[in-house]
Fold this protein.
Amino acid sequence: MLLDSDNRPWGRWEEYLNEPGYRVKRIVVNPGQRLSLQKHRHRREHWVIVRGEGLFTLDRDVTRVRIGDHVEIPVGGVHRIENDGEDYLVIIETQLGLCLEDDIIRLEDDYGRAG
């Protein structure tokens, strides 16, 4: 059951579980768009790519990700995903720790939201 959702300049996120210590979201990144270069103070994340492909950045490493790939983002890990394809990029995100939506420190942002 969908608990919450939000449209963003890069696509959309949908929240399906939100329990103490963990949260599960579906993230849809539109073709040609990317998320902020960001980090979190209070949570780590596990992403599974379920549709599309793109470029995943973690700290200084950039990796191509495709359907079936998964990535681990540690607390404080600087990360971003970019959809450089022609199809939607869909990620299932599991957050672990203190899972608050405002725990985002944007370092770079294509849509003027950094800082």
